[in-house]
Specification:
Blueprint lengths: L2 E6 L2 E6 L10 H16 L5 E6 L3 E3 L4 H11 L10 H13 L4 E5 L2 E3 L1 H4 L6 E5 L3 E3 L13 H9 L1 H10 L2 E3 H7 L4 E3 L4 H13 L3 H12 L3 H18 L3 H12 L1
Parallel strand pairs: 2-3, 3-5, 4-6, 5-7, 6-8, 7-10
Antiparallel strand pairs: 1-2, 8-9
Protein name: Crotonase
Main location: other
Organism: Mycolicibacterium sphagni
Length: about 250
C-alpha cells in the first residue's frame, strides 16, 4: 500500500507510505493520494485531514526512476510525458478543490513536489530536522503543482523566486521565517502538535469549516488552474530533453 490512513474522532491522517523510496511519487502513489483525498472529502464523519510521510522522508518528489523508465519506453513515439500525467493533474485538482482543512506535517526531507505540495496546506508543521528543496533548475525541469502562483502568494516574490531558481536547501527555521510552514516542532512532537491543532479545528462545526475554506480559496481557483496548465505545457516540452535528459541519465548511473 502506498498510502496509510487512520481515523481518530473526526480527524483522518493520510501517510505517504513508500519509505524505501523516500515516499517518492510514482504513478501508483499519485493515484492513491488523489483517491484518498476524494474519499476524505466525501466522508461526512471527517472534518480535518493531516497529511504526513512514513519513515525518514516527507517525500523525495517525483520518482525519477519511473520517469526514466517511461522515457526510455516511449522514445520511439516521441512521447515525453510521464504515464501518470493525467493522474497528477487529477491530484492537483483534488488538492486545490479539497473542501476541508488540510494540515501537513513535514516529518523529513521534502524535495520537488514534496515541497511544492505545501502550497495547498491550510496549516503546515515541520520537524526541526527536516529540510526542503526545489531542485528544478538542477534537473532541467519546470516546477509543478501551480507553485509558480502559490509560492509567490505564500512567500513573496523574491523568496519564491530564490526557492524555485536556486535549487538550494531550506531549513525548517528558514521555512517558518518565509511563511512556508506555520510552526517548527521537535521530531518526536511533530505529529502530536499537528493532531492537537487538528482536534481544535475538528471541534468546530463542520459546515463552518468548509464555508471558511471555500471563501478563503475562491479568489485563487482560476489562477491555480491557469498556473498548473502553463507548468504542464512546459513540462511536456522539457521532460526528457536537454538538461533534463542529462540529469535523469546521471541519476540512473548513480
Amino acid at each position: 500500500m502506498t498510502i496509510e490512513t487512520s481515523d481518530r474522532g473526526h480527524v483522518r491522517t493520510i501517510a505517504l507510505n513508500r519509505p524505501e523510496r523516500l515516499n517518492a511519487f510514482n504513478g501508483q502513489l499519485v493515484t492513491d493520494l488523489g483517491a484518498a483525498l476524494q474519499q476524505a472529502a466525501a466522508d461526512a464523519e471527517i472534518s480535518v485531514v493531516v497529511l504526513t510521510g512514513t519513515g525518514r522522508a516527507f517525500s523525495a518528489g517525483a520518482d525519477l526512476k519511473e520517469i526514466a523508465e517511461h522515457l526510455g519506453d516511449s522514445a520511439a513515439t516521441e512521447e515525453r510525458r510521464p504515464t501518470d500525467t493525467g493522474a497528477f493533474a487529477e491530484l492537483i485538482d483534488a488538492l486545490a478543490e479539497f473542501p476541508k482543512p488540510l494540515i501537513m506535517a513535514v516529518n523529513g526531507v521534502g524535495v520537488g513536489f514534496g515541497m511544492t505540495i505545501l502550497g495547498f496546506a491550510d496549516v503546515a508543521f515541520m520537524s526541526s530536522e527536516a529540510r526542503l528543496r526545489c531542485p528544478f533548475t538542477s534537473i532541467g525541469a519546470p516546477p509543478e503543482a501551480a507553485s509558480t502562483y502559490l509560492l509567490p502568494l505564500l512567500l513573496g516574490r523574491q523568496n519564491a523566486a530564490w526557492a524555485l531558481m536556486s535549487s538550494e536547501w531550506i531549513s525548517a527555521e528558514e521555512a517558518r521565517e518565509i511563511g512556508l510552514v506555520w510552526k517548527v516542532c521537535t521530531p518526536d512532537g511533530l505529529l502530536t502538535e499537528a493532531h492537537r491543532h487538528a482536534d481544535l479545528l475538528a471541534d468546530k462545526p463542520a459546515h463552518i469549516l468548509t464555508t471558511m475554506k471555500r471563501l478563503l480559496n475562491a479568489p485563487h481557483r482560476e489562477q491555480i488552474a491557469a498556473a498548473a496548465a502553463r507548468e504542464n505545457q512546459a513540462m511536456a516540452e522539457m521532460l526528457g530533453t536537454g538538461a533534463n535528459a542529462d540529469a535523469v541519465a546521471s541519476f540512473l548511473q548513480r
